[in-house]
């Protein structure tokens, strides 16, 4: 990969400071499937369990309570897993989602004021990986590793969230999740490296990075949460990997689109798909944003068409494709209705 940037941010005059945010709601012209609202009682119960779990593990200070309630973890997982087998599995999905956000906020995000930094990120992330992919060695060093995990909130969150997930997931499903977290960490490192060197990627390069730095760990668990297993031999097939990647990529672009105004308000150089398109094509942010919507729609169309073809080959594959589609649709609903976090640019 070239080490020189094709251009530099902001490229055309950066319009982040002059963006007028409009109310929430679905992005006009975006391809998505509508879903029913989340059951408020079920979402509240999951939130109650998650907050008790986080407090028990001392994962964050009281000052973070507003962020916790504003994120709406319970509503997110209820929307993403409408066919979840039980509340325990929904809660475990919420624990994993919460843990991933704690690690991201505390280790990666410099602008959140929680200790995140690009410099030295690799060392922190390898320790994070070890919290779910345990160290094996001589007993005294294993105990030192365990003490290190127990002493750090982000590490505790990973370790105990995976422990609860593994209590009902098969070893194969658990191992799948561990490997997809490693992919996520690789994406974090690429994004941090580009930010540190002020490299502005080409559009295809950015989307490659986002195929790793995306929601895939969340989608890795859909079959376990719904109470079945897509066997490893089937999951590993290239065509299954493709629809999984398409689902993950589509929903990650959704995140870029809904978080666009929030990210640019806090950091005008933050990489997201519209910003990268604007820099590469020397166009305004509105035109770039609308092109990002088009890219998302084409990916979603491919996911829907290819999933339908594969679903006709096997009832189990059909169930897995439906679980993926449910997660993508539910996550879109969460983004489009979470006005605490997201507001659309006034482009329509």
Automatic annotation (TrEMBL):
InterPro entries: Isoprenoid_synthase_dom_sf (IPR008949), MIB_synthase (IPR047945), Terpene_cyclase-like_2 (IPR034686). It holds the Pfam family Terpene_syn_C_2. GO terms for molecular function: metal ion binding; terpene synthase activity. It catalyses: (E)-2-methylgeranyl diphosphate + H2O = 2-methylisoborneol + diphosphate. Keywords: Lyase, Magnesium, Metal-binding. The keyword Hydrolase does not apply. PANTHER family: BETA-PINACENE SYNTHASE-RELATED, TERPENE SYNTHASE. This is Terpene synthase.
């Amino acid at each position: 990969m070239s080490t020189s940037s094709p251009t530099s941010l902001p490229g055309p005059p950066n319009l982040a400071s002059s963006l007028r945010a409009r109310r929430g709601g679905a992005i006009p012209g975006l391809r998505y499937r509508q879903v029913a609202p989340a059951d408020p009682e079920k979402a509240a119960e999951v939130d109650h369990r998650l907050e008790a779990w986080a407090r028990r593990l001392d994962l964050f200070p009281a000052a973070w309570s507003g962020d916790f309630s504003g994120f709406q973890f319970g509503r997110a997982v209820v929307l993403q897993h409408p066919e979840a087998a039980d509340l325990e599995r929904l809660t475990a999905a919420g624990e994993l989602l919460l843990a991933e956000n704690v690690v991201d906020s505390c280790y990666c995000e410099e602008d959140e004021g929680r200790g995140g930094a690009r410099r030295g990120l690799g060392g922190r992330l390898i320790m994070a990986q070890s919290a779910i992919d345990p160290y094996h060695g001589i007993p005294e060093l294993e105990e030192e590793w365990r003490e290190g995990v127990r002493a750090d909130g982000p590490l505790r969150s990973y370790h105990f969230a995976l422990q609860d997930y593994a209590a009902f997931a098969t070893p194969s499903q658990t191992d799948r999740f561990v490997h997809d977290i490693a992919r996520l960490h690789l994406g974090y490192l690429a994004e941090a490296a580009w930010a540190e060197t002020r490299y502005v990627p080409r559009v295809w390069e950015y989307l490659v990075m986002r195929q790793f730095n995306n929601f895939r760990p969340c989608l890795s668990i859909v079959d376990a949460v719904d109470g079945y297993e897509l066997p490893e031999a089937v999951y590993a097939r290239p065509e299954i990997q493709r629809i999984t990647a398409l689902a993950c990529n589509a929903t990650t672009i959704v995140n870029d689109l809904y978080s666009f105004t929030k990210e640019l308000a806090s950091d005008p150089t933050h990489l997201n798909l519209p910003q990268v398109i604007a820099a590469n094509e020397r166009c305004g942010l509105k035109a770039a944003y609308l092109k990002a919507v088009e890219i998302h729609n084409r990916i979603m169309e491919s996911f829907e068409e290819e999933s339908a073809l594969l679903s006709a080959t096997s009832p189990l594959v059909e169930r897995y494709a439906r679980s993926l589609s449910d997660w993508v649709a539910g996550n879109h609903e969460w983004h489009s209705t979470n006005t605490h976090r997201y507001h659309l640019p006034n482009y329509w």
